[in-house]
Specification:
- 2 copies of one chain form a homodimer.
- By secondary structure, chain A is mainly alpha-helical.
- Chain A contains 26 helices and 8 strands.
- The first copy, chain A, starts with 14 loop residues before the first helix and ends in a 6-residue tail after the last helix.
- Chains A and B meet through α1, α2, α14, α19 and α20 of A and α1, α2, α14, α19 and α20 of B.
- Chains A, B: Keywords: Membrane, Transmembrane, Transmembrane helix, Transport.
- Chains A, B: One of its GO terms (biological process) is transmembrane transport.
- Chains A, B: It is a multi-pass membrane protein.
- Chains A, B: Its main location: membrane.
């Protein structure tokens, strides 16, 4: 039992001594261990390690250790361009997989791109532009092997709705476009900076529950917006709230709906949904939903072309610019108030894009078991959007649906993104004129069938089952998006996420403990109704670090318990409380406010003739208590290793 | 051992079974307990209790239970006006104490009030007004017995500096005053609302450390401002930063300093400081520093009057309006942009005032051991400022220095505030003209000697000794106030306080555990270097609730450890890790993001052929894990009550 002497840990595993003491109890030999004072740790080292754990917990520079300068340089370049690393072991069999998956996601992305550009109130070619440059940049700098880069529905909607609040997309087309590029530029800058300064953990503050609600809300909002195309309505509200959209839809019911459009739209929507269902039923047919949109486009375009349906009120795409991305650096606002607007819009959509990309990256990295450096990924995504903003792209990120197809089609590396990019290039150069007769209704159907997967009812049910608070956060974000706007929904999601954190740190659990019969163990009496209180002693356990945010609550709560207890004992003529034992095992840390509260608690107890006793303070806590002189204040002999030791010491001394 | 069956608690005190199992180990009888599935708790009840703990943990309505309607009404009125409660047992002996202390704090508050009004850039009478109405209101509604109400230095400075940014206090005097009343009105509204909706805990988010720094910085800033009066400088900067103030002071050195003023100011400052020192040395002479300011005023006023020093450049008060508070309801801005400005300024200064009052209330309540309902106090303070704003008062709150004098002079109830208020009334009605010849230098000396006590160097030293992070927060607030402005300092204080909370919830400690020799106990190997790892098993402990804010970190950190460990084992040709045991004892709660991370962790481990094992999940955690189906995923037989049990089960099964 040589460990008893330096057994100052307290860190919740004081089992040796507990075992020892409980054995001794059974022999009726009272032996009480003391909590030792630990040696002072090296403070500089402590701070360095704390900084390291916060920003560099994944030790990103570990490969650079003990290397020559040339090697370091090579490793450095490889770190920025991972393609130089994995490219060396690239081979034909990998290329086969990448080629097939690249072609598959290309056939999926082209129709989606055109539709998503409309969501962002931009001309269709901008969607295609954004599927050409950003995937190329990502392929060189990114380290996820499965992510498929390009425009996505939620970010397009968010961007479109925020830009629309500043400029009219039709009447102020040029300003609108310029602000879009400005926002894209700053989205990239935001992502780059977060990654570069290793602040990537900030996106963790949007909780999973909030994202589920936000995504589902966005999916419904996007689908509702598609009613315009699907029903062939010409006059449509600009707001995204469900109330004004439905009002718009029904106002147009009498003369604004176009039955030819509805027939085309709804029949292809049915086709797409069936394809989706087949792909879901049997994973082998994952390619069915992947190529269904392209087939729909071809068939419907042919149909319109042959029957000239556009003359019967079926709205068509009419025109897509031919040729690759024109430069757009000069269109970015680098001064004036549009800079500020662009920055605000860019930062928000950049963060949302990041959240989506990070979730995808993590999911597939876990499936194939490779490590992703989240911060490095952010730098790659940021660079890609900065370059994109200069080549007429709007905010691109990883797409959930296309990444899943990419994975299932057997991609091996980011080369599949390069393949997709090449196909988009050919499309832009050669076949954009063919999209002229594509009906808008088909694009609407494609978008609806794409975003419908974002509504994850199972996840919502699970949230309800597992954690009510998470469910509230989810519903808050969901209802905020569909009834108000995407921004409001986002705000609610962030606010609820923060409220949860604040609640966690302000109101820790504090339990009253009782002695479990025939043992020396003290447990929560609410959980163990058979546990009995020791007469004259109140034992409480604090289940959290004691910081300024909860220290007052802790003190007040404990005093309140003591008052209630004393009142109860008075009524039943029982012995007054003489000792208050605070079980500190779960208290991982304490700050000066916490120590102050303990001192206040001690003073209040003194007035009531109650002794304050601490059991099992952890090493960090014990350290700080000693530095503050608190043990001298209450008496070193009032600090015990276990509750059992404390009770054993004081129970016999009790006044009758 | 009947408790073994429902021993699903895990809540860090699984001692019975540990004792039991370790005993069995010594008998070489492998007996492994399982973590049981707890019965579902009543969810509605759970939510109700959680709301109750958050907002009503002090059970404010407990006296109303089981009472008749008339009694309830009477108790309700008493709850709003505690004077009706304690007033009934008021007697002559209590009045004696209150009279003496009331007269003492009156003699202290009158000179301070005049000075503090100048800090807020208001005419001297407004300080006196604020010591007349608010204390009266508080006496009826407040429940602290020791607090002395009136204007205080820090709030005056803060208010003055924020108001000055909107209107010039000399050229736009009327607008400035109107905005001051508007701000006071909204300070009251803010305080009232926080209290009424029981959101008082929000002020706990300003940490003790940040307040120490903020107060010290404010004291230095205030003292520097007094150099104007003390040195008789006429042209003085409007900024509060130390750099511009010192530049102002030295720019005036050649012709702007007035030696007569300096002689008067410095000699009385010395007198006041000596008085303060005497009071500090011997608590019996607490009244010496309490009446010293009044004596200084009388002596210096006489001196100026007799020698006509004002003709030698000594600046004097010149004029104080005679008579009690004029009504000011009509001066409050209830519309326009001044309403917004007033609201912003009022909310900030109201919160700071609240922080100060709450700290005072708590301190003295602890000294005399009575309970204060913080939220009810806020309602009282809020009402007092609302009424104050309609009677020409500016923001009043509890003063540290005067409350201490009140306490030491032997006050018993808030009647001492009424006495003070009456003395101020008489002053306003009768003797304000006598202040005409009071030199400004004396007011400066009084303010300096009053605020100097706010610089708590011992507390700063203690912060440095106990908690480096708290010290950084303190210094940040301190330097922010003295180099920039009060608002910036406040902002820094709040930001650092929040950063600490965020750090706490994003980066919990995760420790690798090893087996302490000759025991079945597993502890942090950094703390116990003699603890040995079990070959093929990695044991980690997570020291926090697992929430969305830290779940990704937790998963990544654990995987990183596994990778490092495996690399190390590979180099030394040792057995590969086959089991990862996560000790969950300190995990008090988990949310859906946390469960997702555990699932991701499980999937990653599967790819590496490592088994995931959980030890000792707490009741809440176990609940949620079962609701999510996680135990089915990893296998019910992978969840153990203790780490020792898990190791005992798997160690023999290990492949060589």
């Amino acid at each position: 039992m040589s460990h008893r002497v330096n057994d100052y840990s307290g860190e919740m595993d004081t089992d040796i001594s507990r075992v020892a003491s409980s054995r001794r109890h059974s022999d009726n030999l009272p032996y009480v261990h003391k909590v030792g004072v630990p040696p002072k740790p090296n403070l500089l080292k402590e701070i360095t390690e704390s900084v390291k754990e916060t920003f560099f917990h994944d030790d990103p520079l570990r490969h650079f250790k003990d290397q020559s300068k040339t090697k370091k340089l090579r490793l450095g370049i490889q770190a920025v361009f991972p393609i130089l690393d994995w490219g060396r072991s690239y081979n034909l069999s990998k290329f086969k997989g990448d080629l097939i998956s690249g072609l598959t996601i290309a056939s999926l992305c082209i129709p989606q791109d055109i539709g998503y550009a409309k969501l962002a109130n931009l001309d269709p070619q901008y969607g295609l532009y954004s599927s050409f440059v950003p995937p190329l940049v990502y392929a060189f700098m990114g380290s996820s092997r499965d992510i498929a880069i390009g425009p996505v529905a939620v970010v397009s909607l968010l961007l479109g709705s925020m830009l629309q609040a500043e400029f009219d997309p039709v009447k102020q087309k040029l300003e609108y476009q310029r602000l879009a590029f400005t926002a894209t530029f700053f989205a990239g800058i935001t992502q780059f900076i977060l990654g570069f300064f290793r602040l990537g953990f900030l996106i963790d503050f949007l909780s999973h529950a909030a994202i589920v609600g936000f995504m589902a809300g966005a999916a419904i909002t996007i689908s509702l917006q598609q009613l315009k195309g699907l029903l062939g309505i010409k006059k449509f509200t600009k707001e995204t709230g469900i109330v004004s959209v439905m009002r718009s839809v029904f106002a147009a019911a009498h003369h604004g709906w176009n039955w030819q459009t509805i027939v085309i739209g709804v029949s292809f929507l049915a086709f797409l949904l069936v394809a989706k269902f087949i792909g879901k039923k049997n994973k082998k047919y994952f390619w069915v939903p992947a190529i269904a949109p392209m087939i729909s486009i071809i068939l419907s375009t042919l149909f319109v072309f042959i029957f000239h349906a556009e003359k019967h009120g079926v709205q068509i795409v009419r025109h897509i610019d031919r040729g690759i991305n024109p430069p757009s650096l000069k269109q970015i606002y680098f001064s004036g108030e549009n800079l500020t607007k662009g920055f605000k819009i860019g930062a928000i959509s950049g963060l949302i894009a990041l959240t989506e990309a990070a979730a995808i990256g993590r999911t597939f990295a876990a499936l194939k078991d490779y490590q992703l450096d989240g911060n490095k990924e952010m730098v790659a995504l940021g660079t890609m959007n900065i370059v994109g903003s200069m080549t007429s792209c709007y905010v691109a990120t990883g797409s959930f649906s296309r990444s899943a197809v990419n994975y299932m089609a057997g991609c091996h590396t980011a080369v599949s993104n390069i393949i997709m990019s090449c196909v988009v290039l050919l499309t832009l150069e050669l076949i954009t004129p063919l999209f002229k007769y594509t009906p808008n209704a088909i694009l609407a159907s494609i978008i609806i069938s794409a975003v419908i997967g974002l509504i994850d009812i199972d996840a919502m049910k699970l949230l309800y089952k597992i954690d009510k608070f998470d469910f509230v956060a989810c519903m808050g974000a969901f209802l905020g998006v569909i009834f108000e706007s995407v921004e409001i929904g986002l705000l609610i999601a962030v606010a609820i996420s923060f409220a949860k954190i604040l609640l966690q740190v302000t109101r820790p659990r504090i339990a009253v403990l009782g002695k479990v019969p025939r043992t020396t163990v003290y447990r929560n009496i609410q959980q163990y109704p058979e546990a009995t209180r020791v007469p004259g002693i109140l034992i409480v356990r604090v289940d959290s670090a004691i910081y300024f945010s909860n220290s007052n609550y802790m003190r007040d709560r404990i005093l309140r318990w003591l008052t209630d207890e004393d009142e109860m004992l008075k009524e039943t003529n029982q012995q007054k409380i003489q000792y208050l034992i605070v079980e500190m095992s779960p208290v991982t840390d304490i700050d000066t406010s916490g120590i102050h509260s303990l001192e206040d608690l001690f003073k209040s107890l003194q007035k009531r003739d109650v002794q304050l006793v601490l059991a099992n303070p952890g090493p960090l806590v014990n350290d700080k208590l000693h530095a503050s002189g608190f043990p001298d204040m209450i008496g070193e002999d009032k600090i015990f290793l276990t509750v059992a030791d404390a009770v054993m010491t004081f129970a016999p001394k009790m006044e009758p």
